[in-house]
Amino acid sequence: MEQIAFKMQLKPGNAAEYQRRHDTIWPELAALLHESGVRDYSIFLDEATGALFAVLRRMDGHAMESLPQHPVMRRWWNYMADLMDTQSDASPVVVPLAPVFHLA
Fold first, then answer.
1. What is the largest CA-CA distance in the chain?
2. 45, 52 Cβ separation under 8 angstroms
3. Residues tagged active-site
4. CA quadruple 76, 82, 86, 90: dihedral sign
5. Which residues contact residue 94 at a Cβ distance below 8 angstroms, ignoring those fewer than 6 apart?
6. Rounded-to-integer distance, Cα 78 and Cα 72, Å
7. φ, ψ at 80 (rounded to 5°)
8. Is 15 exposed, middle or buried (0-12, 13-18, 19+ CB in 10 A)?
9. Is 79 helix (H, G, I), strand (E, B) or coil?
10. Which among 26, 38, 102, 103 is most buried, taking Cβ atoms within 10 Å?
11. CA-to-CA distance for 103 and 89, rounded, in angstroms?
């Protein structure tokens, strides 16, 4: 299993709504992520800056590369686009984070 981390950026004033939408994540999106090999996915918020830090584990042979073409993923991105920095296709601006330390 591989662990990856990345950051995204909320627009000011949207932390509560971002939390609310994730508290009621669509079952079909959760299922899609799981079917794509995503495991143990967490997102953390830096309240001072609005930066979101995500960490997930993905199975060997995962299918995450197919997520951008899936209608459920596209619908979720469109649903979330008003809250965060996005690309022209409504996907979030994602900045990969390099691992520097891990204690197991």
1. 39
2. yes
3. 22
4. positive
5. 6, 7, 8
6. 10
7. -90, -10
8. middle
9. helix
10. 38
11. 37
